[in-house]
Amino acid sequence: MTDSRVSGFKQRLAQGEPMIGTWVKTPSPVVCEVLCRTELDALALDAEHSPFGRLELDGCLAVSRLADMPTLVRVPSASPADLLNALDCGATGVVVPHVTTTQQAEAVATACHFGRGGRGFAGSTRAAEFGGKKMPDHLADSRQQTIVVAQIEDVEAVDAIDEIAAVEGIDCLFVGRIDLTVALGAESPNSPEVIEAVATVCAAGKRAGRPVGMFVADTAEAPRWIEAGASLFLLGSDQGFLTAGANELVGAFHTPRSS
């Protein structure tokens, strides 16, 4: 693949360049096509919490690749089958929920890459240009471009964060702040114990030279976490944009007009 947004995304991530993407909750290639026309750095298809079947995922990734939009897939689970499906369909990388141990992180990294005990090879996939890419080229591109993101959203993961951050093949730690809030029994994502856990993940990322990503509900928080070492922000969602836009329209319509 020639130089492109997709092929250069892993390098940008590794360099800690602040980037912003958004979640796609609606399994529609049209939604992805619209968002690909924006200046977002990436999309993240939420196949964990939204009704993405294999065909819907395939269609969304087809549109994103044609538009050269880096696209991650938050897979339903860490199973090799879910990881393989997303990557074969053409995902730039995967976000793996509930990574809690070093052993699990190692297994995920292995399953996402070609090699002994790892990802099964097929030359007929979109990732391999439907047979148009030679095996050595596909292997090299996958090695250089595939992104593996471990989502940190459990107390056990925070406790083992230095070990997880050190795992070869994990490209980014992504803080699942809402799940962390629930796991910690905190009142809100802004509770002191949650903020401390997020800071712990950022500090571990810095020590290991591992990029850190996160979701924040308020963009005003971003500078603070960039200073702490975070760089990949997946904010908002297509559903949120629709809701906010509709409510803004209704509000504008009903705003009293001067005579």
Question: Can you give me a brief rundown of this structure?
Answer:
The chain is an alpha/beta fold and 259 residues long. It is 47% helix and 15% strand. It has a single domain, classed as TIM Barrel (Alpha-Beta Barrel).
List the helices and strands and how they pair.
Layout: H1 5-14, E1 19-24, H2 29-36, E2 42-46, H3 54-66, E3 71-74, H4 80-88, E4 93-96, H5 102-112, H6 135-145, E5 147-152, H7 155-159, H8 161-165, E6 172-175, H9 177-184, H10 192-208, E7 212-214, H11 222-228, E8 230-237, H12 238-254
Parallel strand pairs: 1-2, 1-8, 2-3, 3-4, 4-5, 5-6, 6-7, 7-8
Describe the structure.
The structure is a single chain. The model has no long low-confidence stretch (mean pLDDT 96). The longest helix has 17 residues, at 192-208. An eight-stranded parallel beta barrel has the order 1-2-3-4-5-6-7-8, surrounded by eight helices. It is globular and about 70 Å long. Helix 2 packs parallel to helix 3 (54-66) and helix 9 (177-184) packs across helix 10 (192-208). The chain is 47% helix and 15% strand. The relative contact order is 0.13. With 259 residues, it is α/β, with parallel strands linked by helices. The chain has a single domain (5-242), classed as Alpha-Beta Barrel (TIM Barrel), CATH 3.20.20.60. It contains twelve helices and eight strands.
Low-confidence stretches: none
Principal-axis shape equals globular
SS summary, helix count: 12
The tally of domains stands at: 1
CATH level 1 name: Alpha Beta
* Structural class determined from secondary elements: alpha/beta
The CATH superfamily name is Phosphoenolpyruvate-binding domains
Please outline the major beta sheet. Answer: 8 strands, parallel, barrel
Any idea what the radius of gyration is?
19 Å
CATH T-level topology: TIM Barrel
Q: N-to-C terminal Cα separation, in Å? A: 61 Å
Order of H and E elements: HEHEHEHEHHEHHEHHEHEH
Average residue pLDDT? 96
Q: What share of residues is helical? A: 40-55%
Question: Which architecture would the CATH scheme give at its second level?
Answer: Alpha-Beta Barrel
Strand residues, percent: 15-25%
